[in-house]
Amino acid sequence: MPLISIDRFDDPRLEDFRSVSDGELLRRRNLFVGEGRLVVGRLINSGHRVVSLLVNEASRRALDRLLASLPDAVPVYVCRTDDFRSITGFNLHRGCLALAERPPERTLAGVIDGHDRLLVLEGVGDADNVGSAFRNAAAFGARVLLSPTCCDPLYRKAIRTSMGSVLRTAYARLSKWPGDLATVKAAGFTIVALTPREDALDL
Predict the structure, then answer these.
(1) Of 71, 83, 107, 164, which has the most beta carbons under 10 Å away?
(2) Could you give the angle at the alpha carbon of 43 between the alpha carbons of 173 and 68, nearest 5°?
């Protein structure tokens, strides 16, 4: 785990960090980003393969023990807090970013087999809402299924709002919607849908 001091915001070694606001570009590079000390700490402990980190001095000190547990091949770049905006293109006051490889996508069967609680999200495009849903799913020990039009759970805002729960909650994106729900029912699950419609059954 080498510590590398960064003196220039245009250092070429930071190229991937310049793309952290572009979720689609990161996806094409098979990467995702975690931001903030809490999320980055949980990312390091999650078993995902961390590629590199960019931190300010305060975050380096706060995460010192966790950073020491990283493999030697993972560089930790240390820069001034004021340089984060120049590097990433947006205000980042948390002073802590980590890039990691996207994990292999799970299958529907791999998520539901041997489990008894699921949260199914349909058309949830807002990253904060997806993150909140994952945080609640983790609290109830549920796994998550997403319809094709849901936001990417590994988008940085979704991970941040979930407080890292996305990193430890099994999920799968359904390719056949709503057809895959028949597979869920056949596996023994009872599907209950929530709706704000006035004629819905009052819980």
Answers:
(1) 164
(2) 155
